[in-house]
Amino acid sequence: MPLNANAVRVAVTGAAYVAPPKSTLPTDSTSGWDKAFIDVGWISDDGITESNSSDSTEIKGWQGGQTVRKVISSSEMTFSFTAIETNKTVLELYHKGSKVVTTSGKSVLAVKAPGPDRRCFGFDVIDGDSHERIVIPDGEVTETGDITYKGDEAIAYEITITAYPLADSTVAYKYSADPAWATAAGNGENPPT
Question: I need a labelling partner for 135 at 20 to 30 A (CA). Which of 39, 155, 176, 191 fits?
Fold first, then answer.
């Protein structure tokens, strides 16, 4: 089977974005983001982690007790990253439902008990000319990590976003103009002999 080393991608750089609910979403991988989307800033070198999980229920037959079917009983798509830039956007994402208020050059964040805070999210994943864009039309920060204040580390905000399904069950859109997306495995160049 021919292999294609030119289709191996590395997430060299990228960005994470957030916008209010029902914002205008991008429909390709290269157009500019709508002005409602705000770049969250620096992300740790761990990058962004996409997780897809599902639980299934086994249905066993009476005759012999063999599994005759599996039914997906639940599924979830999440994205997690660690923001290392302290700014208004990150603070308000990390502290769900809380707002930074600035008056007379002084800012205060009254940290409230978390409540619902659904938004649109997006990610750009870039490897040279290869550009993948992930868009979450309806998501929410559902988990945060501990904040550590130390003299030799950046203050970091671990954030996990859960993507919620739309009416048609879509939880995210992925876009790319990368030709490798349209090429079946085995249709690339032959490996050296």
Answer: 155
